[in-house]
Design brief:
four-stranded mixed sheet; binds FE2/S2 (inorganic) cluster
């Protein structure tokens, strides 16, 4: 008789066939044969560590599957939201062409374009989505005004310069950003009444001094194209850029396609707005 359950009918009736286990204790039924002690020939207690290890291995397997699937989805989303970066590894040497496709010479620039030229002349460099303004600051032949031997200027008078055609404020481009010939607006800075001006919000840049800032809201100069004049054949080349990164690009060389070995001038009518902050 079970002394702890004398009034329990079910247990008292079947006590002789009852399992030798305490009442209230649950046992896991296993299909694995119970291990037998070699020393006593008695069954050994189930090793609870086996079950823990099994559960642990299950968790590792599930985590591996989740990680693999998650990594694949994450990688796909990464490339879906951000296209692969394209561009160039270094600045190319690019020969400039005139608007008609003929090779541009410094003599031609000095003859046909000068500080009074109203049209915006642009060429792309070093990427096809990076337009630049080409400006000859020299006065017309026999005239006065303008500027020669300026910072970064090339050609026989050191007056041919080029700057990014993308404003450093919020990125308005040529023809909203344009060179304003002398007297285009009443505004002047000292004796200088010609400048690069952005009609979007009024930023003004000095083309005689590396496109430094004359008025905001832009606080950085325009990137300047490094030009080279080959005096032996009079050709003009773009070979690099200095100053800040072209606005909208994490790197002036990245985010577009290279222009190739030549770049042709384009001619546009500027948007003129004499609005200064
Ligand atoms: S984008 Fe040129 S001044 Fe704002």
């Amino acid at each position: 008789m079970n002394p702890s359950c004398a009034t329990c009918p079910s247990l008292s009736a079947a006590w002789g066939n009852a399992l030798p286990v305490p009442v209230g204790r649950m046992y896991r039924m296993s299909v694995r044969p119970r291990r037998v002690s070699a020393r006593t020939s008695e069954p050994e207690e189930d090793d609870p560590v086996d079950e823990t290890r099994r559960n642990f291995l299950k968790l590792v397997a599930v985590a591996g599957v989740i990680g693999a699937v998650g990594g694949g989805i994450g990688g796909a989303l990464q490339y879906a939201g951000r296209p692969p970066t394209v561009g160039l590894s270094n600045y190319p040497s690019v020969q400039l062409q005139d608007v008609d496709g003929s090779l541009l010479t410094a003599s031609k620039v000095m003859k046909e374009y000068n500080v009074t030229t109203p049209d915006a002349l642009t060429f792309n460099y070093p990427l096809t989505n990076e337009p630049n303004l080409l400006i000859n600051l020299a006065p017309p032949s026999g005239g006065s005004g303008g500027a020669t031997h300026v910072k970064g200027g090339v050609g026989p008078s050191g007056s041919i310069v080029a700057f990014s055609g993308i404003c450093q404020h919020l990125g308005c481009q040529v023809p909203s950003l344009a060179f304003y010939p002398p007297g285009t607006c009443p505004q002047s800075f000292g004796n200088q009444n010609f400048y690069i001006h952005c009609s979007c919000h009024g930023s003004t840049y000095d083309p005689t001094n590396g496109a430094s800032n004359l008025t905001g809201p832009a606080v950085q100069p325009l990137p300047q194209v490094t030009l080279q004049w080959n005096s032996s054949d009079d050709s003009l080349w773009a070979v690099g850029m200095t100053g800040p990164t072209v606005l909208g690009h994490s790197n002036t060389l990245q985010g577009g396609t290279g222009v190739g070995s030549v770049s042709r001038l384009q001619q546009q009518s500027p948007v003129i707005l004499c609005s200064f902050p």
